[in-house]
Structures are given as C-alpha cells and as structure tokens.
Design a protein that fits this description.
mainly alpha; 80% helix; 0% strand
C-alpha cells in the first residue's frame, strides 16, 4: 500500500504539475521551473531521509516524511500563498514525498522474512508501478472532469497520508541467523 500510494502522488505531481500550474494562470516557463524544484527537492530528500533512517527508526522517519509531504501538498492547494512560498512548498513536497519513497527502497527488505526478501521487494516494486500508472491517469481524468488546481492537489494528501499510516504500522522482520 505504501509504495503504491507514494508513487501515485509522485507521478501525478511529476506528470501533471506543469499543466496544473499553467491552468492556474502561471506562464509555462514558471511551471517547468517549479516542476524542476519538485525533482530537486526529491534528490535532497532522498539523502536526508536516508541519513535520518540510519539514526532513528526507519519506518517512523519514512512515515513522518509522508505526513509532512501531505502537509506541504495541502499548503500548495491552499492557493493563498506568494510565488516564493509556492516554490518552497513544491520543493518541500518533493523533498518529503520522494525522500520517503527512496527511503522505502532501503527499508523494504526488512519487512519480509529472509527466505522471501527478494520476492517481497519485487512484488512491492511491481504493485507500486500500478500506483504510478494510476497517478498518471488520475491527473488526466480529474482535469477532464473540470477539477481545479487546488482540488487536484488537495486530494493527493489522502494517498500521502495512507502511505504514512501503512508504513508506520509495518514491522521489520528479524534476519535469519547463519553460522
């Protein structure tokens, strides 16, 4: 569930953010720059989340990152912010969402018993890809239904929160002891 929901949010934002921003009245050049900030935030977020996962409970770090991602997504949707604050929220949403998603790749093997770790992670990655497909398609469907920028962005807080709840409730499996 976590990987599916995280990729749904990331792919909808990555694929549709330029269109959504343009439809909200900003020039396409600005929309492209803001989308690049989302990706930049994700790159830095991956490094910071990984660092924090080494020092604290990894599933909690990932969960907090998803929750903060949901918060910054809602701040984006509010629409009553300055241009520089909007850019900051895009950067921070990318930082949190992509940081959590990348951290999940490192944490996932701990969620499966040793004999099936590769299979478990492969299934997680495969199911997650359906989230990316769903996110890409959902953007087009919601826009064709006449949803506003704020509505499309705000609804993304739901899967981000679901990802957080799902990962926080996950328990790591003990490693098999070998002689």
């Amino acid at each position: 569930i976590t990987y599916f929901m995280g990729l749904l949010v990331i792919y909808l934002l990555s694929g549709w953010l330029p269109t959504l921003i343009k439809d909200a009245g900003l020039p396409i050049e600005r929309a492209a720059n803001l989308t690049a900030l989302f990706q930049l935030g994700g790159t830095v977020g991956a490094l910071v989340v990984g660092y924090c996962m080494d020092r604290f409970a990894p599933h909690r770090v990932i969960g907090v990152s998803y929750v903060l991602g949901a918060v910054f997504i809602l701040m984006l949707a509010s629409g009553s912010v300055t241009s520089s604050m909007f850019a900051l929220y895009v950067l921070l949403a990318g930082f949190c969402m992509s940081g959590a998603q990348t951290g999940l790749n490192a944490f996932a093997p701990q969620c499966y018993p040793t004999p099936v770790r590769a299979t478990g992670v492969s299934w997680m990655l495969g199911i997650g890809r359906f989230g990316s497909i769903t996110g890409s398609m959902a953007g087009g469907v919601l826009l064709s239904m006449g949803w506003s920028f704020s509505a499309v962005i705000a609804i993304l807080a739901v899967p981000a929160t679901m990802a957080a709840i799902s990962i926080v409730s996950t328990k790591a499996q003990p490693r098999a002891v070998t002689a």
